[in-house]
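User: Show me a protein chain along with its predicted structure.
Assistant: Here is one chain, sequence first, then C-alpha cells.
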Amino acid sequence: MKLYSHYCPVAHSLGLVGERWTLLVVRELLRGPRRYTDLADHLPGIGTNVLATRLKELETAGIVVKKKLPPPFASTVYELTPAGHELRPVLHELARFGARLMGPPPPDALVEGWLVGALDVALSPLCRGSRIAFRVGDEEASLVDCTATPGIVDDYDVLVETDAAGFYHLVVDRQLEGVRIEGDVAALEPLLEGFAPRPSPLPA
C-alpha cells in the first residue's frame, strides 16, 4: 500500500486503492463474494503473489472481508464491506471515462460473460428502470430495474442486437450503423445521454 505524505482525501483514497490491480479486484467483488481461485481466473495476467497482497491490503483497509462459508461449501470467500461498496460509483465513472478513450474492442479481446460485466459497471446506473435487452454477438444480457442479468429478459421494453464494435459505437458515439433496435427506442436514451462526457462548466 502506497501512502502519500500530504493531507488530501484524493491522496488518501489512492493510497488505499490506487495500486495496480486493486480496483480490478474491487470490480470483480462488486458482483458478489468470490473465492481466491475465482478472482485469479477472472483477472488474467495477475500474479498469485500480487493478488494475495492486494486482498490483504484491502482487508487491512476495511474494504474487503474474508469469510468461511458453512458446510457443505466449506470455502473461503472474499467480499466487499459497506465501505467497499461505496466504490461502485467510482468504478461506474472510471468505466465510462475509459471507454470513451480506449476505442472499440479488437478481435478476441473479450471473454465469455463480458456483456453482463459491461452493463453492470458502465450502464446500470443510467437505465432509469426500463427493461433493456442486449444481444451482442454470442452474448445476451439485460438491464432489469437497473441490475445487469444474463440472458434476454421477458417483456423487454427494447432489444438491441449488434456486434461488439457496434455496441461500443452505439453507447459511446451514438452511432446506429450495424445496430438493430426493436421496441421503445426512447428507453435507450438515458443510457446514451449518461454515457456522454459531461459538458465543462463555463468560466465565470
